[in-house]
Structures
1.
Amino acid sequence: MQLHNLKDSSQQVSFVEAVKTGLGRNQGVFFPESLTPLTDVDALLDMDFVTRSSKILSHLIGDELPADTVAHMVKNAFNFPVKLVEVAENTYCLELFHGPTLAFKDFGARFMAECLAQFNQGDKVTILTATSGDTGAAVAHAFYNKPNIDVVILYPKGKISLAQQKLFTTLGGNIHCYAVEGSFDDCQELVKNAFLDEEVKSTLGLNSANSINISRLVAQVCYYFEAIAQLPKAKRATAHISVPSGNFGNVCAAMIGAVIGLPVGKLSATTNQNDTVPRFMLDKNWTPNATLESLSNAMDVSKPNNWPRVQSMLDNNWFSYDNFYSTSVNEQDTQTVMKNIQQTGYVAEPHTAIAYQGLVENRAPGAAGIFLATAHPAKFKDSVEGILNIELAMPKPLADALAKPCLANDINADYDALRTEILKKLS
Ligand SMILES: *Cc1c(COP(=O)(O)O)cnc(C)c1O
């Protein structure tokens, strides 16, 4: 796979380089020069999820990795199911929350961990990441016990839910967690400082594992094929998929899927009140507002860093603007929609409800609709129970994590303190 930097096309990299580097020069993201359609999509759709996903990823990555290596990586990464549930006539929910941390981020994080373990020739690698919730848990579980790789996770002390926190702070081993006396922005600032510190960067072999990494995106392409494979054949070509969007990585993966031959009619990227892209679609002006806190907090992003990738596919007519929708759902409507879905007998958390509403607003009459459930309702227990007036059972991974002690250390929001600590511990 040959990629170029969307802000500076003279920077060309291989897949391996793009995975190791993450972000390109001038904060530009890497994107494939071209995407070749798959041959015989019908035969692919007949295969099981892991076999098909290995073929799709081999096709995308190309000859940089042998097919049997990719197959092995996929088998390790995708060791939990994807479920398509019909919640109302012709309306399907794609459940992506059956992984170890109960959110779709497990797919990308686990495949990225396989990639880094594969590309690493015995060098020391340290994943340093700040989390406001779901990413930390997905990354920690994905890299847990991977040889030669340490993970350092910073989170704002007391500002994330106990369930979110316990999903990564209870692992131990190569997962090192710090509760920072400060905000999420303070945590991000500490990470930024570390990446500017050449000594720390080279001594520890820093990598951020954040959501702009191309390995996470290509992994996510696979479950869109699984969704369509589980749909009756006659409904496939015109199906409409709605993706709850924050950083726009997930919908980018759907679009890459469509470009390489996924039978799908239309795509919706549905946001919460942080509606930079929906407003851009109306007047083509890019005017991000200050980020607002929402019930769907994993989508509280006003400058989505995967948007340049989506826009490049639309501007190059790889996917038609006519088939792409982006609308927003406000806080009041998010709650109303959660209650509407409850009427069908299904329980959706806020992110999932937003995807459902994107479908209701934009789908053509008669077309099958698929909305993505990106997190298990129990991950957002308080808001779900409060809004729907129900009690949720705790799924096993969450109950297990809650029963274990937190192994995080407290640290001040002070770069010198962090620097001393991680150099002492990891070099
Ligand atoms: C991260 C996340 C999203 C947003 O996905 P993007 O790829 O950033 O658009 C939606 N829902 C949940 C539960 C998430 O954790």
2.
Amino acid sequence: MSDSMQVDRSDFDRVMVPNYAPVDMVPVRGLGSRLWDQQGRDYIDLAGGIAVNALGHAHPGLVEALTEQAGKLWHVSNVLTNEPALRLAAKLIEATFAEKVFFANSGAEANEAAFKLARRWAHETAGPDKHEIIACTNSFHGRTLFTVSVGGQPKYSQGFGPAIEGISHVPYNDLTALEQLMSARTCAVVIEPIQGEGGVIPATDAYLQGVRALCDKHNALLIFDEVQSGMGRTGKLFAYMHSGVVPDILTSAKSLGGGFPIAAMLTSDRIAQHFGVGTHGSTYGGNPLGCAVAERVLDIVNTPELLQGVDARHQLLAEGLMALSAEFPVFEQIRGRGLLIGAVLTEAWRGRARDIQEAAQRHGLLVLQAGPDVMRLAPSLVIPEADIREALQRLRAALASLAG
Ligand SMILES: *Cc1c(COP(=O)(O)O)cnc(C)c1O
């Protein structure tokens, strides 16, 4: 084994557990919104590592933050605290509703912490009967057993033994359905302000306001899963800031680390106190490397210039997609917000999101799907205008190859 050991995509099936089906190329280098594969072919990246690479690849500010911290201190565990974690927590508190922060390493772990905290809070303030968690059909909250159980896509929880109890699902954006299910037994309601994996579907402001009112009425916690929608993705630091509806717990991951694995759960003093010493933890959570990178991401993302740039880039992409659709009747609706965009396929193209993704890759463009009927884009928040224009040309060529 050495650096010079030759590997390629065909090795994947030999050495990896077969739970993924990666596309047919191996990227080896990235810069900004471009990636290069083993053959030196370039790709424009509108996938952004699934809404993670908020500042593109190898952003100089993030490389600097990472390498500076790498020469100082990587890991100490939570037996000790560290400066980057304390600074990042203080900045997240300053920028949001939160008064306390818990760090984890992935979106699923941040949600796991949120659900456990909600249950602990309810158990200590109202007793064991108040444990029911209500989530939405088609929602996605991660892949641990608790988070697939809360998630509203049964295919992710089936076949893994007895499910976690006390969880039910209601249709998204349907206040009446939620109202009928809520009671004194409800401990928390979990919402993605924009359903990402479920098809890039935004919640309406009226729905979020109604959910908040129902949570207040039944003394239940409102949890916003902003793992995908947060950290500038929608043109505000967090998507909840568009609606003015403030949650009790918010989870962030993906763009938070800009590519370094880190996640955070934000909450108030009142709720945080129910995670007393020893109740929950993570060996890596809040490690200095991850926190140093995320602190730099937050410094760069949470500025008016960057956030306004997200709106401008949305405009450019949405107009370009509609123009393509005038040529090939492929998209019937462009939805989402900022740089979390879902292009909904028309009847004639329904079910072909994977075909579009593969054709785009053959034409030097990376896009995502959100289910079989939606092409999803989640590029860098600072993708240059020229890359957006070039990406639209490559998408045009990809669509032409499929239409022809
Ligand atoms: C991606 C995602 C998660 C899971 O995050 P991981 O880092 O993969 O564990 C949870 N919730 C939402 C809304 C997501 O988009």
3.
Amino acid sequence: MSLTHESLEAGVTIEQEEMVLHSLHPLNAGIAPEVAREKFITPQKRFFIRSHGSIPDVDGETYRLSVSGRVKVPLELSLDDLRIEFASSSVVATLQCAGHRRSELAAVQPIRGEVAWDADAISTAEWRGVRLREVLLAAGIGPGVKHVAFLGLDEIEKGGERFGFGASIPLEKALSGEVLLAYEMNGEPLTREHGFPLRVVVPGYIGARSVKWLGGIRLQASPSNNYFQRHAYKLFPPDTQAADANWEEGKVLSDLAINTVICRPRASEVLPAGPVTIQGYAITGEGAHIEAVELSLNGGATWREATLLERPHPWTWCFWEASFQLEPGCYEIVARAWDSRGRTQPANLREVWNFKGYMNNAWHRLHVSVF
Ligand SMILES: Nc1nc2c(c(=O)[nH]1)N[C@H]1C(S)=C(S)[C@@H](COP(=O)(O)O)O[C@H]1N2
Ligand SMILES: [Mo]
């Protein structure tokens, strides 16, 4: 069944069999791990959708991107300006929401007021657009600029106010060349739900920095004051509860953590004895790649290496698999990854639990029975 404009905003369609619907208003839909694992590049209709407010209906003809703040020349760019005056550039990048795998944390201790993402808030696309770097250089970077702030054209209601979703990234990352202002996804124009007509793609960072429906870019001395940069998307230790959090003290999230997910078999699956192939993906943050993935069939007592199916790719997930001969019995399958910086994952959910449910990268575990 597909959900269309009666239940969603006009022009937005999602195929319900393809996606896990978490909420309609705002529209939040995930991609089941076994579906995600089918294709390295996720088709648009399966790509997870995370929105905090309305999905704006932007007219591509009258659309203008403003570039302002500490610049030499403020710019107002149409889509044609971007396409004609700047070279097009593409990057294959995985987007992952900071709330990916939140439901596992919520099972340890409740998490209130957040979307109950499973391991379903991750997808990969080939993005095409112009390098943010080129647009910043065209505007001219003024003195004292340390951060580049983005503002979306959507409307979010919070505390009696309405405002667009915002974020910022350090100037150094903004100039890195991999950060795109994207108008295409997998060779097609961006769909409305993924940010038509223009979105930011910040490879290696949590999805929240990849602002959709981009209306403005500001060059600033300090990070964005927007709620989603200043307040939300901050990490607190496991012993902090929402009521006693000092928001100024939370760690601002940017880089993705090293993580891995078992996609097949599924949790609680019952399998016939014999050969079983275990499949999943792993991902890590900035400036590193996945070096190894290890699997355990006995809850982490002994491990065996899986085969990585791709060569290191800086901004994407890495698919892996391993085959085992399984005798009848019950198994706790566990996966953990290692990256080129020697980092690995924490063993237990309790070590990473936080009241917002961000960045769960504990060993991924599931039980199967074999008969
Ligand atoms: N304008 C705007 N941009 C946004 C958001 C939003 O709600 N509004 N959500 C962010 C979050 S939290 C994530 S994880 C990604 C998700 O991108 P996708 O919906 O294309 O998967 O978009 C980001 N950009
Ligand atoms: Mo997110």
